[in-house]
Design brief:
about 15% strand; 13 strands; three-stranded parallel sheet; alpha/beta; about 30% helix; Rossmann fold; TIM Barrel; 2 domains; globular; 10 helices
Length: about 350
């Protein structure tokens, strides 16, 4: 693992002539075969350039060859790769569990061969977009007008990879040596969302919806706790309360781990799928409060972004929470939405 440090540390590393290195082995990034970059947001495109430069790698893909690591980017921003196309060798589009295995095997077959050969091998993998193998025309306003493959291996369209059923969740988690935000065991209980909120890229790009069963989640929590020592578990998805069996899941976690005083984190709940049963199930365990994401303060603006939650429904949820003893509700709002008054 390697992370781009904060700007004061970047300045200190540059001043001391220290290149960016991996966290565990302190290996300079230039010595790796492949560097996988997570790009969850478009705002991180510039961090990619800073990372490459701090590592001592040429920023432009055209200036790198087989002597340099392959730069492969994935994450939600990989669905809009063109702004970063000049700097990335290949984009991994979609679910990565199977795709990354195909990518590593393709690299192993072409290790030491010319970069062109390596990239042609990657381009033949479904879900991989290699920018140099496509010619792109732009409209006057900067939008893409046309895309044409220029080698036989390049496919069009590049279809995102989808795992039909979620693989077993990781349970041997890396435990931080310092206190961090979200210092807890986390498990993805559901991937994808069918709601279609207009602001949410992930809700569209991660479809279809796939759930993990209650039994699989319980087994994962059981395995995680003795390996990590965490006292809190986060049940993660774009909308945890949309899991079809969320009440039973929370109830069984509370019952099974009652003697361990395990806290449950349910981030970014939807008020329209929150139920009295879920509140009562959570009430039996340790839980600091509830987080809801109405996103906009008026019903009109929530309708604009297709998050149709009535104000009275939100107030009723707050009443249900407070009646069960909690005194903390956190609400997420976005500022600057189109149509805001």
């Amino acid at each position: 693992r390697a992370y781009l440090p904060w700007i004061d540390m970047i300045a200190a590393m540059r001043g001391a002539g220290i290149p960016l290195y991996s966290l565990e082995s302190r290996t300079p990034l230039t010595e790796f075969d492949v560097i996988g970059v997570s790009l969850p947001y478009e705002q991180l495109y510039t961090n990619l350039l800073e990372m490459l430069d701090l590592a001592g790698l040429p920023c432009l893909a055209a200036d790198r060859d087989e002597r340099h690591p392959l730069i492969v980017a994935g994450g939600h921003a990989a669905f809009n790769p063109e702004p970063a196309a000049d700097f990335v060798d290949a984009f991994a589009v979609g679910d990565g569990e199977e795709l990354v295995v195909d990518l590593v095997r393709a690299y192993e077959r072409t290790r030491g061969k010319p970069r062109e050969t390596q990239l042609r091998a990657l381009a033949s993998i479904p879900g991989i977009y290699v920018p140099r193998f496509y010619d792109v025309d732009y409209n006057e306003d900067g939008t893409v007008a046309a895309v044409r493959p220029n080698v036989a291996e390049a496919k069009l369209p590049v279809l995102k990879r989808i795992v039909s059923s979620l693989p077993a969740p990781p349970t041997r988690l890396l435990v931080p040596t310092i206190d961090i935000s979200h210092n807890r065991a986390s498990i993805e209980i559901q991937r994808g969302c069918s709601r279609g909120c207009r602001f949410c890229q992930a809700g569209h790009s991660l479809r279809p919806v796939r759930e993990r069963s209650v039994e699989e989640i319980l087994a994962a929590v059981e395995a995680m706790l003795p390996l990590t020592g965490f006292e809190e578990v986060g049940l993660l998805s774009l909308s945890p309360s949309d899991h079809s069996d969320i009440e039973r899941l929370v109830r069984e976690i509370v019952e099974r781990f009652a003697d361990r005083h395990l806290s449950i984190s349910l981030p970014a709940l939807r008020a329209d799928s929150f139920s009295v049963g879920l509140a009562e199930a959570v009430a039996r365990g340790r839980h600091s409060g509830f987080t809801f994401a109405p996103e906009a303060a008026s019903e009109r603006l929530r309708a604009v972004i297709n998050k149709r939650i009535a104000t009275e429904q939100m107030l009723e949820v707050a009443r249900e929470v407070f009646q069960r003893g909690w005194r903390t509700i956190k609400l997420y709002f976005m500022i600057g939405l189109p149509g805001e008054q």
